[in-house]
Amino acid sequence: MTSTGTFPQIQAPTTEERPTEDTRHGITRVDEFAWLRADNWQEVFRDPTTLEPSIRDHLNAENIYQTALMADTVELQKTLFQEMKGRIKEDDSSVPMKDGPYAYGSSFKKGGEQPRYFRTPRDGGPEEIILDGDLEAEGKAYFRIGGLDHSSDHDRLLWAFDDKGSEFFTLHVRDLTTGKDLADQIEDTGGGGVWNAGNDGFFYTRLDQNHRPSKIFFHALGTDPAEDRLIHEETDPGFFMNVAGSRRKDWIFIGINDHETSEYHLLSMADPMAKPLLVAKRQTGLQYDLEEGGDIFFILTNADGATDFKIMTAPVSDPVRANWKDLVPHEPGRLILSVLGFKDFMVRLERKDGLPRIVIRDRNSGEEHMIAFEEEAYSLGLSGSYEYDTDVIRFSYSSMTTPSQLFDYNLRTRERVLLKTQEVPSGHNHENYVTRRLMAPAHDGELVPISLIYHRDTPLDGSAPCLLYGYGSYGITIPASFNTNCLSLVDRGFVYAIAHVRGGKDKGYAWYEDGKREKKTNTFHDFITAARHLVAERYTSHDRIVAEGGSAGGMLMGSIANMAPEAFGGIIAEVPFVDVLTTMLDDTLPLTPPEWPEWGNPIASEAAYKTIAAYSPYDNVEAMHYPPILAVAGLTDPRVTYWEPAKWVARLRKLKTDSNPVLFRINMDAGHAGASGRFSRLEEIAYIYGFALKVTGKTAVEPTK
After folding, report:
1. What is the count of structural domains for the chain?
2. Residue 551 known to be catalytic
3. Alpha-carbon dihedral of residues 446, 452, 456, 461, nearest 10 degrees?
4. What confidence score (pLDDT) does residue 6 get?
5. For the segment 640-690, what is each residue's pLDDT rounded down to a tens digit?
6. Same domain, yes or no, for 151 and 215?
7. 288 strand-pairing partners
8. Which structural domain range is residue 205 located in?
9. Contacts (Cβ under 8 Å, ≥6 apart) of 401
C-alpha cells in the first residue's frame, strides 16, 4: 500500500528487544517487547510519576517522533480545532429536569472546559450553581467528574471526581445550603453513590487494587469510612458490580453482571441494615434487568430463549424467578434495549429493522403506541424522568444531518414539545449534506449496514476520501447521530461512514452473538466488506479510505491491518486493544476475568487460546506492506493499558516491509477517554483528523465546500 500523503524521512524510535517466553497448552510464544509493561502498573495508575524511567523515556521519544512527522499539519490542526469549537455553543446549557421543588441541569460557561451543575425553582427562576467543574479542576492536568446524586430532601449532593485518568474516583458530599463539602470523603470508588431514604447516608462501590468493583458499602454521614458497613461482596473477579436507586426512593438495586450473565440483589432504602434479597441466582447465559413499577418489578430478560429479550413482571413482595410472568412477549428481530416504569405507564426503547423506536404502554388498558421517525438512519435517546408519578418523559432525536433535538413527550395526550435544538453557532444547513444507509453483502451472505454522510457537492466517482469508523464488540451499537466534528472532514470532500459490523446489536442480539468468541472474525470481515462495498459503489477508492476505531474498535483496526492492508490508505487506532491474547492470559489486569465471556478464556481453554491467537493483532503482525498507522493512547488507562499499543507499534516497525510510518501518540496525563476537557479533547480530534487529511493528500488548511 502506498499512501497518498507524504511524511518526512525521520528515524523512528528504536525499541530494545528483551525476549521473554510464555508457554500455555504446549504452545510457546516469544514477546520481545513485554518489558514495556511496568511491573508497578497499579502504582502508576495512581501516581504516573512512578513510571520506570526507561519506559518513560521511550514513550517520550514516541511523542517527539509523532510530533515531528505531523509538524506540517500544525496550522491545519489549529484550523480544524477552531472549526469544531465554532460548532459548539460555548455557553450551552441543558434544559433542567424537574424533581420535586427544583429542576436540575448542567451548563458550560464561555471558554469553560468542565460542566457546571445547577438547579432552579421547579417552574423557572434564578440558577443556583451547585458544582462548578472548572473551579474544581483548577491546577489539575486531568479532571473528570463522575456520578452526581442529589438527596431527596435536596439538601446535599453526592459527587465524585477522577484526577488521574485511572478511573479511581473520590467521593465527596456537598452541603447545598453552604456550598461546602463535608468531611466525608471516600477514595477508590467506582464513581458514584446512592442516598438512603433518610438522606443521612449513602451506598457506594469500592474498587480493589486491581480496579475491580468488588464491594458495596453503606456510609453514614459523619462517621469514619473505615467503619462503613459492608453490604455485599462479589468474590468472583469475572463479574462487574454496581449500585443504583429507584425514582420512588424505595429500593436499592445491586446489579452484578458479566457480558452474558446477570444477578440482582434488592435492599430497602429505608433499612440499610437489612440483608439484601437475591432475586434470581446467576445462571450462565441468563440476563435480566430490574425496573421499578410500584407493587411490581418490570424485568427485561432473555429468559426462556428470548434472544431479543422480552418484558416480564414480578411482585415486589416476592420477586423470585418462579414468580416472573410474561408481559411483552419475545418477538424475534425486535431487540428491546431498555425499560422505564412510571405510575401509569411503561416505556421501552427498542430497535427493529436496524432503527430505534420508543413504545409507550398504558399500564391500565394495555394499549401501546409508538414514537418513530422517517429518516433512513437516525438515533433516539431516552432520558426518562427524575420522577415516578409523571405523565411526561424526555427523549432526544438526531440524524447524521439533523442536529440533536430534545423533546418533552406527554405519555397521556401524546403531545410532543420541542424543548431545544442543538445550536451550531458557525452555521449548519442540513440541505448541504446527504445521509444514506447502505447494505453491504458480507462474505457469508449477511448484509452489513453502513451509515454515511457526505456533502451534496462531493463527486461520487471514486475520487473522494473516506473515513470509515467501526467498533463491533460488547453488543454496543454505534448510532447514526449528529456529529459536528466530522463536518470538518465532510466539508473537505470526505465521505464519513460508520460500518455497523457484527459484534454490535445493530440488527438484534444475534448480530452481537455472531461477532464474539469463536465468531469474532466476522467483525473484521464485515468491516473489510464495508470498505470494499464503498469502493464498488464509487463512493471512494481503497487508497483513499482511512479506517478508524477505538478500544475494542482499535483491536478491529489492528486486525484489518493484518488481514487486508491493501484495502486502506491509512489506519487510526485509538486506545487500541491489540494485545488480546496476552491480556486475556493475565488475570491480574482489571478487566480480564470479566472479559472472558466476550473473548473466551485462553487460560482454561486451549480452543479459546488458539481462536484468540489466530486474530490477536499483536500476534499476527507480518513481514508485509502496511498503510500509514496512527496509534493513540493514555498512560493511566485501566481499560486498555498503554503497553498494548506501545508493543504493537514496536513490532509493526520491526516486521513491516514498507516505508510508511507508524505513529504513536500517548497522553501522559490521561487515561482511556483521552483529554478530559471539552476543548482539549477537540485538540486531540483535530490531530487525528489532521492525520486522516494528511494520508489522503488533502492538507489544504481551508475547507473546499
Report:
1. 2
2. yes
3. -50
4. 83
5. 889 999 999 999 999 999 999 999 999 987 655 556 668 888 999 999 999
6. yes
7. 301
8. 95-332
9. 430, 433, 434, 435, 453, 482
Q: Which of 332, 353, 388 is the last residue of a domain?
A: 332
In which element (H, E) is residue 367 found? Answer: none
- 63 and 205 in a single domain? The answer is no
The dihedrals phi and psi of 69, each to the nearest 5 degrees, come to -70, -25
Looking at 545-589, list the stretches that DSSP marks H as alpha helix, in order from N- to C-terminal side.
Answer: 552-563, 580-584
Q: Which long-range contacts (CB under 8 A, 24 or more apart) does 48-57 make?
A: 48/164, 48/635, 48/636, 48/668, 48/669, 51/635
> Is 167 part of a structural domain of the chain?
yes
Domain of residue 324, CATH code: 2.130.10.120
Residues 6+ away with beta carbon under 8 Å from 525: 442, 443, 444
The model's pTM: 0.90
**Position 536 pLDDT exceeds 60:** yes
- Residue 5, exposed/middle/buried by CB under 10 A (0-12, 13-18, 19+)? buried
Instruction: Supply the CATH number for residue 646's domain.
Output: 3.40.50.1820
Q: What is the 3-state secondary structure (H, E, C) of 625-660?
A: CCCCEEEEEECCCCCCCCHHHHHHHHHHHHHCCCCC
Within 8 A by CB and 6+ apart from 240, the residues are 213, 256, 257, 258, 594
Examine the domain organization and report whether 127 and 220 are in the same domain.
yes
Q: How far is CA 156 from the centre of its chain?
A: 29
For residue 397, the cross-strand partners are 380, 405
CA–CA distances in Å: residue 236 to residues 212, 214, 242, 254 = 10, 8, 14, 15
Residues 551, 559, 616, 676: which is the catalytic one?
A: 551
Q: Is 552 helix (H, G, I), strand (E, B) or coil?
A: helix
Same domain, residue pair 68 and 99: no
Q: Are residues 102 and 240 in the same domain?
A: yes
Specify which residues 289 forms β-bridges with: 300
Residues 68 and 154 in one domain: no
Is 657 contained in some domain? yes
Tracing cell 411503561 back to the chain, one arrives at: 346
Same-domain check for residues 515 and 662? yes
What are the backbone angles phi and psi of residue 217, rounded to the nearest 5°?
A: -120, 160
**Roughly how many angstroms between the first and final C-alpha of the chain, as a whole number?**
29
- C-beta of residue 309 within 8 angstroms of C-beta of residue 330: yes
Complete DSSP assignment for 197-225: TTSSEEEEEEE-TTS-EEEEEEEETTS-G
- Cα(394)–Cα(374) distance, rounded to whole angstroms? 19
Contact between 618 and 560 under an 8 Å Cβ cutoff? The reply is no
Average pLDDT, the chain: 94
- Who contacts 340 (Cβ-Cβ below 8 Å, separation ≥6)? 291, 346, 347, 348, 382, 384, 385, 393
**Lowest model confidence (mean pLDDT) among 30-34, 369-373, 494-498, 580-584:** 369-373
Looking at the structure, tell me whether residues 79 and 101 fall in a common domain: no
